[in-house]
Amino acid sequence: MSLEKFLTNAVSSWMSEAGPNSDIVLSTRVRLARNLTDFRFSTLYSSEEAEQIVQKINGIFHDFPDEFGEVDFITTKDMQPLQKRVLMEKHLISPNLAEDSNYGAVILTDKEDISIMINEEDHIRIQCLQPGLQLEKTLKRANEIDNWFESHLDFAFDENKGFLTTCPTNVGTGLRASVMMHLPGLVLTQQMNRIIPAISQLGLVVRGIFGEGSEALGNIFQISNQITLGKSEDDIVDDLASVVRQIIAQELSAREALVKTSNIQLEDRVFRSLGVLENSRIIQSKEAAQCLSDVRLGIDLGIIKNISRSILNELMILTQPGFLQQYSGGHLHPNERDIRRASLIRDRLKLEDQLKEEDL
To answer: Which end of the chain has fewer CB atoms within 10 angstroms, the N or the C?
Structure first.
């Protein structure tokens, strides 16, 4: 494999699979934060220490278990800024690693369902991803990788506090579990402003599509735990799953109410958005995300029958600024990106129509 492989395909292979509740829960992510005992934390270490950490982990990389799939070890210094942005848009590295680190690395599996970031906020961040709502399965996989690392490395650990991390909010289990949810029903019925504070009171946090500080483009929200100290991994995952299932029920109820009370208006919104995507010559990322959300809702409700849900997953990533420029072979000005985005969406929808006709 090579870096180019991870940059070429918009949708990771695991994203093409259907998971539980995948009409609402796009993906599940579990991340474990770990630090090595022999090195200072990232806020204090030198560039030489950071490089030593990369070399130390690279030294055991050849022994990575085959059961996790074929893997690549890629250093950030070998990546251009645009390449880092593309990996960030695919959720394979964090915005922090994409923007700030010249002394980091990432280990990626061929399915892109495992991403191990090195010298992000912590020395090691193990990230596992699965389609739909699969918190227990994702945690199990993350723990298997964690156990393999612990058999090769010494982690900073305190008997009373648990795993020691750069940010105090991660001390304890070092676990951040999150789900990516598509919630257009709750947004359209104006319930999200009530739900977000209620979720926060339960020790959870609601963020945008790219995590902390990002916007909830296309009605996509990340919901994750805030507390890692004083709770077990199982408790964290169980609490999150319980809240997510309640939100799923509320989203389904909101969609049902929209169909019953505003069906013609809903159909009009869905088909107008589809018309924009099929015919626009210039479209900004925010408008594209909203239209894609409307069309996905239309597919989920059976209003649109000739477009597969998977194409929306693809276009959500493919229309991001980094991916557009990667596809175009270089830097594009904002207006050029908007033109290219519109063209790409039109072409992709036309291809979908052709594939449907061939199947008939």
So the answer is: C
